[in-house]
Specification:
By secondary structure, the chain is an alpha+beta fold. The chain contains 4 helices and 4 strands. It folds into 2 domains: 93 residues, 2-Layer Sandwich (Double Stranded RNA Binding Domain), CATH 3.30.160.250; 36 residues, no CATH class. Helix 1 crosses helix 2.
């Protein structure tokens, strides 16, 4: 995405919710326009929360990997299955991007065993020291 192009703050896609009678009544959801965006939850309320999170994660991932975000199908064009309900889900992309950037990630580091033992004896916080060192090295 070019620096001049403004990123959308809110993006809405229709989701289909359907009770899975074979799976203890869980509510399955899917986004017809987004191939890898689906999931389930024990209740409809929880599914509504999960769909928003799933949508935001998939859209941020698509942006980061340079995949084009498709246009959403108009909700009245979603094929209705018996017992299924379609609803628009709105992604707050500004919050999702911020959350994605601030999420914790694990990194494996290698150090000599004696150094690990000394650091543990000193009760050092490896994560904090690693973060401080990277910030210093990167001048951020």
């Amino acid at each position: 995405m070019s620096p001049k192009m403004k990123k959308n703050e809110y993006i809405a896609f229709p989701a289909i919710f359907e009770t899975d009678h074979e799976d203890v009544g869980n509510v399955n959801f899917e986004f017809p326009d987004l191939e890898n965006c689906f999931g389930n939850a024990p209740t409809l309320n929880e599914a509504l929360v999960e769909t928003k999170e799933a949508l935001e994660n998939v859209l941020v991932w698509m942006e980061k990997d340079g995949f084009p975000i498709p246009d959403a199908t108009h909700s009245d064009r979603i094929p209705a299955r018996e017992g299924a309900v379609a609803s628009l889900v709105v992604a707050d992309m500004k919050a999702a991007r911020r959350s994605w950037e601030e999420r914790a990630v694990n990194r494996t580091v290698t150090l000599p065993g004696w150094l690990d033992q000394e650091a543990r004896k000193a009760n050092l916080n490896f994560s904090r020291i690693f973060q401080e060192s990277l910030k210093e090295r990167l001048h951020v």
